[in-house]
Amino acid sequence: MDFDIIHIDETGSTNRWLREHANTERDQLLWTDYQTAGRGCGSNTWESERGKNLLFSLLIHPQGLKANAQFSISMAISVAIVKALSSLLSSPSSLLSSPSSFTIKWPNDIYWCDSKLCGILIENRLSGGFVRDSIIGVGLNVNQMQFLSDAPNPVSLRQITGREYDREALLHNVAERFTLDVDAEEYRSLLYRRHGFHDYRDVDGDFEAELVTVEDDGHLLLRDRNGRQRRYAFKEVQFTITNNQ
Prior knowledge:
Layout: E1 4-11, H1 14-21, E2 28-35, E3 54-60, H2 71-89, E4 102-105, E5 109-112, E6 115-127, E7 130-140, H3 157-161, H4 167-177, H5 184-189, E8 197-202, E9 205-214, E10 220-224, E11 229-232, E12 238-239
Parallel strand pairs: 1-2
Antiparallel strand pairs: 2-3, 3-7, 4-5, 5-6, 6-7, 8-9, 8-12, 9-10, 10-11
C-alpha cells in the first residue's frame, strides 16, 4: 500500500493522533520516538524507552471490506511484521540462522519463542456493514535492553540478537509488506502453539488443548484432551505461559 509517512518526536498515542489529525481520505503512517500514553488492549499500557523502539500507526481505508471480514486487517498486519522480522534474521549478516521462531499469538501479538516482541491495537470504524476506515497501532520492541514494567514476558530484537537495528528501515520493511490480500493459510501457518497440546485458561478454569484453527472471522478453535472443541472470541481464553526469564 502507498502511505503518506509522518514522523513526530513525541505524542500521547499514535492511534489517537491519527484519529484527530490525519487526512481522512488518504492512507497514512505515523511513527514517533516516544508515546506518553501508549496503549495496549483494554486498560493495558505499553512500555517503551524513548527512541529505542518502533511505535507507529497506520490509517487505511479498505474498499469494500465487509464488517464480518474485518479480521483480515489483523491477519494482514501480523503477517507483514513476521515477514519483515524474518527477513532481518535470514539476511547474510544475521547472527541467527532460524527466523522461524517468530510467531503470531492469536489474534495478533508477535512472539519470539515464549516472549512478546510486538503488540498491536486495531480500531475499526464501520459504516453500512463495511469497514469505513481502520487505525492499526503497533508497538515493536527493537533496541530496548531493559523492561521495568510488570509485563510478564517482553523481549526486544536487540535482546534476541545482540545487535542494534535501524527503526526507520524496519518501519519501511513492514509497510512494504502490508497488504489486505493476505493469505489466511499463511497466517495460520505462523501461529504460536500451532503444534501440540498447551496450557490455557477460560472462565471454567485451566485446561490443555491443541490448536485446531483460527476461523476467517477471527474465532480461535481449540480441541482439549477429551476431544471437545472449544471456540473462543478475543479475551475469552488466556494462553498460560510459564515465564522462564
